């Protein structure tokens, strides 16, 4: 027995061919493939466990007349093909309408004509439940013209393709309409993100954000018909070889489909993520006229908000229309033919964990992101302010070691010399521009020079800063403390940011990182001037992020905990409390460069912010306790930290006091 297969190297096709070889060991399979894809042949032969004498590649192109098969090959195959399986198609909701029309619709017409030209015994067309459109109600296997709401290109082209088989094919045909095909129920193997997989990233984000026992809010939509690929292949091969089933359509669907809410709960359980305890029925919004929602989508602001939301979740733009999926599929003809064979759709809960495990190990988009620091910064110009000391120097070392062109601005000649010597000894390079960032004219002039010399800055790490530890009560006559901290921490930083922003906007790429403080989240006593200056810059950065969200420029804030740097050295009590090292702090900066966090903070910092938001009075009492525990020492007092001070500092590690 001889077969001709289109789409033989695809997800369903390659498994169909393997099944044919298993059930018909003496058969020969001719499969269509592009000549440019010959490098895939060894892998395919190994998967099928056959050689080229049994699996014969036929070079062609789905977009060409008669699929681009040469006249010589056509002559060779005339009268030899018993079954012609047409599986090739574009299965992608995001694909452009033009290419879907070309491949799905016209490609099917050319496949039918080639099958007729070869005199094939049977034409088997792999259609889809999408051919029914968004029909409201029960769609039977003998229904076709009743399909409605075919405005999505994928739905329309699959309907048109099936119509070509029904109306133009002159040889016996069979049409198979699989449900939403997912991975193998035995192995979980899948080749791409589609169908329910679109929601996996959202489930994963919820798992990272909330514990599994936390009840979540979900949606309750229509019934979604999911089938594993092994069921589709087994059913198709069995039905294709049964006598007397010509010119019929078979729904390869689940006779007991799950609702969208149940499906999401099943996958959430498989992922050990919070399960939706409260479900909002998406059909409640069906009272909104379709033409009204269509009109809203013509408005650019509405489209921008929608596109940004679905891009962040990794969803195609049409997926929300399928949540309230209105169609149920009758599969009695399929069940009749499969009766007694043991071929049936397994319950989703029995293999959902395999699908999730395979996705997380092989298909999760995060796996294909370059997570290395070198991949992010190599060859890029990175300006790190305050890079001659503490966090800045540790960060500059890591960036230079990863291949970045590190630039900094510093004023202290001794520190400049020490930094140059250290980098030279390590075999690293750093370019230092001498100047004082608290002098706004100098800050503006030096930043302009850096931009001119390097053609712009790719990444800016705003690290330079001044900290003053003094209670407000002791600052009544020291207003200049506020002026000094604001001058460097806020105004100086803004001069640098506004100097590098224009070229970033012009290039439509750039990353600005603000080294803030955990004190902004916890409102640390004794640091009113410092926290105020950092809070001001944080607020400016958050506003800028909103303005430039569509310009390709990213903004990040790192609420750094207490770090053992020269800045904190004058405070003797800090010598005996646990603090982060500059190298550990630099790791946070590098992590932000790699992952572009909007805000990065320690758990304690986030907890402090939450307490201040939910129970502000309690937060004030806690911070007042730390304030009184660490009373300011009297002049000349060099006593060590008390047991209470050590205990409190350990409990709230990283918080300023």
What does this structure look like?
By secondary structure, the chain is an alpha/beta fold. Among the domains are: 1-178, NAD(P)-binding Rossmann-like Domain (Rossmann fold); 373-651, Rossmann fold. The protein is 44% helix and 15% strand. The protein has 23 helices and 22 strands. Helix 4 (97-118) links the parallel strand 4 (83-86) and strand 5. The radius of gyration is 33 Å and the shape is elongated.
Keywords:
657 residues, alpha/beta, Rossmann fold, 7-stranded parallel beta sheet, 23 helices, 44% helix, 15% strand, elongated, SDR family oxidoreductase, oxidoreductase activity
Strand numbers in spatial order across the main sheet? 3-2-1-4-5-7-12
Briefly, what CATH class of one domain? Alpha Beta
The unreliable regions are none
Number of distinct beta strands:
22
Report the total helices.
Answer: 23
- Any idea what the CATH architecture of one domain is? 3-Layer(aba) Sandwich
User: How can the largest sheet be summarized?
Assistant: 7 strands, parallel
Could you give a quick summary of the protein structure above?
The protein is an alpha/beta fold and 657 residues long. The protein has 23 helices and 22 strands.
